[in-house]
Write a structure and sequence with these properties.
The protein starts with a strand and ends with a strand. It is globular, with a radius of gyration of 14 Å. The relative contact order is 0.16. It contains 3 helices and 7 strands, in the order E-H-E-E-E-H-E-H-E-E. The protein has about 140 residues and is α+β, with helices and mostly antiparallel strands. Strands 1-2-3-4-5-7-6 form a 7-stranded mixed sheet, with helices on both faces. The chain has helices at about 10-20, 80-90, 105-110, and strands at about 5-10, 40-45, 50-60, 60-70, 95-105, 115-125, 125-135. Helix 2 links the parallel strand 4 (about 60-70) and strand 5 (about 95-105).
Length: about 140
């Protein structure tokens, strides 16, 4: 599979976020209050945007949010490629702590990258999450 990863606008992430993460809610539900302050990355497969992730850097710490890959393409290594790109980008930009709020169903995926669960789980809209982080 040939793909390209590049920086995209916040607005370009919204459709995939909506379709994959919260399809039962209005599109505005997937918009983040400070979306315009973040860095957004997209993975393109055959000229189609199929995976997105957003990064919010504050000093030497960064949170990634709204990581989504179209369902019919999950499990094919595209999300792995995009998250690997984000981790490399974070290292180059002197981020020392990278973290996210992960759905607990995705723990094994994030653990492959060396992220560890920290703190207690919490529930948002009926889905269980936990904070995961990695020192870079």
């Amino acid at each position: 599979m040939t793909y390209i990863i590049n920086q995209i606008s916040a607005a370009q992430t919204w459709q995939i976020r909506h379709e994959v993460m919260w399809p039962e809610y209005p599109l505005d539900f997937v918009k983040i209050k400070n979306d315009e302050e973040g860095l957004h990355f997209g993975l393109w497969l055959d000229a189609e945007l199929v995976s997105v992730i957003s990064l919010f850097i504050e000093g030497q710490e960064a949170q990634f949010r709204k990581f989504a890959t179209l369902e019919h393409l999950q499990g094919k290594g595209l999300g792995t490629a995009l998250l690997s790109h984000l981790i490399d980008f974070s290292k180059k930009h002197k981020v020392q702590l990278l973290w996210c709020h992960a759905r607990t169903s995705a723990l094994p995926f994030y653990q492959k990258f060396g992220l560890d669960a920290t703190g207690d789980t919490f529930v948002k809209e009926g889905i269980e999450y936990v904070k995961m982080e990695i020192q870079l």
